[in-house]
Amino acid sequence: MTTVAGTLQKKINRTPVLASWLTLLFAMAGIGLVSGALVFINGLAITNLTNRVPWGLWITVDLSAIALGAGAFSLSAIAYIFRVKSFRKISRMAVYVGLVGYTSAMLALLMDIGRPDRFWHPTVYWNIHSVLWEITMCVILYSSVLMVEFAPILLESKFMQRIFPRGPQIGHFLHSLTPVVAVIGLGLSLLHQSSLGATYGVLVARPIWFKPSMPVMFITSAVAAGATFTLAITVIYENLIRERQISVSLRNQVAAFAGLTMMAYLYLKLWDFLATAYYSHLPSRVDDMHLLESTTPYGTTFWWIEVLFGALLPAVILLTPRLRNVDMWLVVAMLMAVLGIIANRWNVTLSGLIVPMDWSPGVADLLPVNRYTPSLVEIGVSIGVLGYALLMFTFGLRYLPMFPDEDEHH
After folding, report:
1. Which of 47, 23, 140, 18 lies closest to 382, judged by CA?
2. If you placed Cys at 69, which of 98, 169, 357, 397 could pair as Cys (CB 3.0 to 4.6 Å)?
3. Domains in the chain: how many in total?
4. Is residue 2 part of a domain?
């Protein structure tokens, strides 16, 4: 079996290594807690966020975590809506990745909204004209769906069976609802992912992002990166325990699905660029793009990180049988896909804010570019969110039945 860690494989399973790993993760979580406490006490004034640039690092973390969790609804839909039974073997891992992704995003949002004590307001005070309200409701409802899908995994764990013997029976009942839950989850997640892309069309730099392709590109990029991330996490786990959990056939199917979705994303991205930047000469968009490319590294990060390293190369690896059958190359594809998603979400968020338009009747003048660099407290919170996610993966893979022996979990 080709391994990622090679000769270091045996050392990974040793208790001292695990203890060191957990110490690092708890330290990261501690940094996040301290940073979060400082934000709660002092407010957003201690960050580098402003009225002109109200979204920064935390929103990038939020959007990236949600995108990487998109494997949950896509792989579950394939398994239970399209009835591809082989995908059920990896569906639990997909659900868990989705749960970790969405809860990580919620932690970032908890810091970003400024008044976390009012997080419940959108559920009571409906603003149906707001895209952000629709996103908030989808996040809440889809997170509830993920909890229902996750419940059987938790109830069937050895720990829960000791303290709650009837857990497996309840888990079996909840699992029987999976096809219905998968349909609901698919609808909610598609609405959510697409609305995230549509949000940037109503920002101050709407000439750049006000286009119908944004919602579709947000969905396809999230599905591609989420499926790749889920598969790579599975492969890493297999190497740590030195035992295969999914078949070669399933591995190839998931890799091909992720690779084809990534190629579809690249196709849309190419035509989006040609239609809105190369062939089109809309004055406001031309002015904004020129300002953006002349004052920021947007052009370089777009072509090199988003397109080449973040999408094209991972797609080549995933669609080449000789490469995707090597564990190391799958992990490399995952790392590049994650880098591409982060770069894309950062570029879309920041470029939508640092290129403002000053409007007055009959005149549209460009203002100076807004500047933004994350503060130490913003970085600290982000480190804490990452530490939380890695802790969830560490404990989940160690103690939860992610890969039951039977295709039907009972």
Report:
1. 47
2. 98
3. 1
4. no
Tokens of 339: 């880098």
Assess if residue 11 is contained within a domain: no
Half-sphere exposure of 13 (CA within 13 A, CB side): 12
In a domain, 382, yes or no: yes
pTM of the entire predicted model: 0.89
From first to last of its 410 residues, the chain has per-residue pLDDT tens of 444 444 444 444 457 888 899 999 999 999 999 999 999 999 999 999 988 888 999 999 999 999 998 877 889 889 888 889 899 999 999 999 999 999 999 999 999 988 888 888 999 999 888 888 988 898 899 999 999 999 999 988 888 888 888 878 888 888 888 888 888 888 888 888 888 888 887 776 667 787 888 899 999 999 999 999 999 999 999 998 889 999 999 999 999 999 999 999 999 999 988 888 778 777 767 777 777 777 778 888 999 999 999 999 999 999 999 999 999 999 999 999 999 999 999 988 887 787 665 544 455 555 667 788 999 999 999 999 999 999 999 999 999 999 876 544 44
Tell me the C-alpha to C-alpha distance, in Å, between residue 140 and each of 344, 345, 347. Answer: 24, 21, 26
Contact 229, 278 (CB under 8 A): no
* Cα distances (angstroms) measured from residue 88 to each of 77, 85, 170, 233, 365: 10, 5, 19, 16, 55
CA 40 to chain centre: 25
* CATH at residue 237: 1.20.1630.10
User: Residue 157, SS3?
Assistant: coil
d(Cα 138, Cα 161) in Å, to the nearest integer? 32
CB 307 within 8 A of CB 266: yes
Tell me the three state secondary structure of residue 361: coil
Q: Tokens 């994350």 appear where? A: 374
Whole domain around residue 60: which residue ranges?
Answer: 24-399
CA-to-CA distance for 307 and 298, rounded, in angstroms? 12
In Å, what is the CA distance from 274 to each residue of 280, 314, 341?
8, 23, 21
360: phi then psi, degrees, rounded to nearest 5: -145, 160
d(CA 70, CA 371): 31
From CA 371, how far away is CA 120, in angstroms rounded?
A: 32
> Quick check: is 5 in a domain?
no
